[in-house]
Specification:
27% of the residues are buried. By secondary structure, the protein is an alpha+beta fold. The chain has a 4-stranded mixed sheet with strand order 4-1-6-5, with helices on both faces. It has a 3-stranded antiparallel sheet with strand order 3-2-7.
Length: 143
């Protein structure tokens, strides 16, 4: 019998790809992560709170991490983050009709976030986490 592997029970999460009409940058966040050697550049994302739907989490995370809101949402699909050791399923959304959020939400205590706009043409080369890269690829495939 093969040895049993440990898994980490993780709540599902959402990741957002923001769509601006002109110019076409996407919002991304930078911050330090314990597993990296410095600052990472990621698409806005976060875990679902207990009882929260993926769509509700997407709206909340956009306001928390970027102080933005969207008038239109499109779910692009999803994927398992790291199924070899985690139960996290990532739901990918595209947000458009971007505007400043009515209510400013505060990021979680453990989040060190700086919002940065990144041109879509160069975003793939600048993003530094696999979930953001996979979400951007899913968005490009759906365009």
């Amino acid at each position: 019998m093969p040895p049993r592997r440990r898994t980490t029970d993780s709540p599902s999460s959402v990741i957002l790809k923001l769509r601006f009409v002109i110019p076409p940058p996407s919002s991304s966040t930078t911050g330090s992560r314990p597993g990296s050697e410095g600052v990472t550049l990621e698409l806005p994302s976060g875990k679902l709170e207990p009882g929260e739907t993926p769509a509700e989490a997407a709206v909340r995370e956009l306001a928390e991490e970027c102080s933005l809101a969207a008038s239109e949402w499109r779910e692009l699909g999803g994927f398992w983050a790291v199924p070899s050791y985690s139960t996290e399923y990532v739901h990918v959304f595209e947000a458009s009709g971007i505007r400043p959020a009515d209510d400013v939400l505060v990021p979680d205590e453990d989040e060190d976030i700086e919002v940065r706009l990144v041109e879509l043409d160069g975003a793939l080369g600048e993003l530094s986490d696999a979930v953001s890269v996979a979400a951007l690829a899913l968005w490009r495939a759906s365009a």
